[in-house]
Amino acid sequence: MPNGHKCKPKPLSEVFFSRFKIGDGCWEWIGRNNGVGYGVFSWNGIETYAHRFSWELFQKQTPGQLEVRHSCDNPACVNPKHLVLGTHADNMRDAYNRLRGSYFGRRWNGPRTTWTKSKDPQRYKKHSRAKLSEEQVVEIRKSYASGMGTYDDLSAHFNLPKTQIFSALNKWKYLETQCQL
């Protein structure tokens, strides 16, 4: 450092504003994320979710025990106009209604966060992260019925993990009437 001066840290807002891109509606977080899409923001050794920090920065208040939810269903979004406060139950209801998270395929039963299996037979097809199409499931089932072999054989043939082969053969129940193996 020239003249022995230490570097002055950048202002908090400058650091935050340098880590997202403003798009058509959503402000997309381009900094580090938690592995499932939610932005993580660190400054001076303090770490928090980027969308939660955005809420506090723009609303000038802390959400306390409430959760900061995305009305746009984009975990990387930090646009304060897309962020709303709610309880954990509100957030779980959102996840269910949008077919996201670990509650996929389950039905909300009330405020005590009890869940039961959904009666909707096409829930796998509707899931936003479905990895198989109906056509792939039918093809996998026909191959299995024709004696193609084990899950390992099918996995190698279709270039899919065994978990997806299992899903194709044991879930997607509404396709059973269409397949006629």
How would you portray this structure in words?
This protein is α+β, with helices and mostly antiparallel strands. The protein folds into two domains: 10-117, Homing Intron 3 (I-Ppo) Encoded Endonuclease, Chain A; 123-179. It contains eight helices and eight strands, in the order αββββαββαββααααα. It is elongated, with a radius of gyration of 23 Å. Residues 103-118 and 177-181 have low confidence and may be disordered.
What are the key terms here?
181 residues, Homing Intron 3 (I-Ppo) Encoded Endonuclease, Chain A, 2 domains, two-stranded antiparallel ribbon, two-stranded antiparallel sheet, 15% strand, disordered C terminus
Brief description of this entry?
The chain is α+β, with helices and mostly antiparallel strands and about 180 residues long. About 35% of the residues lie in helices and about 15% in strands. The strands form 4 sheets. A two-stranded antiparallel ribbon has the order 1-2. The protein has a two-stranded antiparallel sheet with strand order 3-4. Strands 5-6 form a two-stranded antiparallel sheet.
